[in-house]
Amino acid sequence: MLWHVYVSIYHFVIMLLGFKQVANSWNVSVKSTFFEHGRSNLWKFLSVWVQVLTQLYYLTHAIIYVRKKNNTRKKSEELNLQLFLNNTYFSLIFPLTMLICFGFWGLFIIDRKIIYPEEMDDYFPFFYCHIYHTIPAVIVFIELLRGYLKTPTYSSTIRPLAIATTVYISILFKTYAEEKKWMYLVFYKLTLLQSIAGHVFFFSIVPMILLQVGIYLNNWVITMRKLMENNDEKTSNGKFLKRIPFLIFEIFK
């Protein structure tokens, strides 16, 4: 859909801005050891992984939209690809994007120094925090509220998520084993055993919980859409989104 084209362009521009900012930072005298380590291991930040994954998700949707307009893709191929994208959304994009948003801002509110100290403002303007930790979550949530996603089975989504989080945690542990440095400042406040448990909880258990939340919310949206259809309401995106606050009361009658 055209929505995916716009979002794909947005993500592409944001990625270029981020890479440009990092490239410019190499010409700056760095006094922050945390920033220096993070810059050298940029690809190990979860937000970078999710940014690339989300871009691929929306770009693929955009390509499907364009090819569908030109009738250059077989219907069976399109359905299989959309099913794959649908499962990818629930298994990876939704839980990991929400993890980044709530995890970052939750720790930021508790103590900024353990997640994004003020010294970082000298290298990355603060609005980048919203670009990479806030806006993606809003976009992903809107994607769900549009009401076109099909709820997958839990088994088909938990496996990709478990594999992805296991690989990511392994990379973080490997980095610490080789460099004796954590990728995230919060873990310096903990003992080694607490840090290991914290990684498993934050990067594995919490995403699985968020996966279930995403599935539940999608069922909620589908239920509301069906209520609208039963009431002979028009289901255009705009009217559907506007009626969400009112339809919640109908669900719990």
From TrEMBL:
<dbReference type="InterPro" id="IPR006838">
    <property type="entry name" value="ADTRP_AIG1"/>
</dbReference>
<feature type="transmembrane region" description="Helical">
    <location>
        <begin position="157"/>
        <end position="176"/>
    </location>
</feature>
<keyword id="KW-0472">Membrane</keyword>
<keyword id="KW-1133">Transmembrane helix</keyword>
<feature type="transmembrane region" description="Helical">
    <location>
        <begin position="196"/>
        <end position="217"/>
    </location>
</feature>
<comment type="similarity">
    <text>Belongs to the AIG1 family.</text>
</comment>
<feature type="transmembrane region" description="Helical">
    <location>
        <begin position="7"/>
        <end position="26"/>
    </location>
</feature>
<feature type="transmembrane region" description="Helical">
    <location>
        <begin position="87"/>
        <end position="110"/>
    </location>
</feature>
<dbReference type="GO" id="GO:0012505">
    <property type="term" value="C:endomembrane system"/>
</dbReference>
<protein>
    <submittedName>
        <fullName>Uncharacterized protein</fullName>
    </submittedName>
</protein>
<keyword id="KW-0812">Transmembrane</keyword>
<feature type="transmembrane region" description="Helical">
    <location>
        <begin position="125"/>
        <end position="145"/>
    </location>
</feature>
<feature type="transmembrane region" description="Helical">
    <location>
        <begin position="46"/>
        <end position="66"/>
    </location>
</feature>
<dbReference type="GO" id="GO:0016020">
    <property type="term" value="C:membrane"/>
</dbReference>
<dbReference type="Pfam" id="PF04750">
    <property type="entry name" value="Far-17a_AIG1"/>
</dbReference>
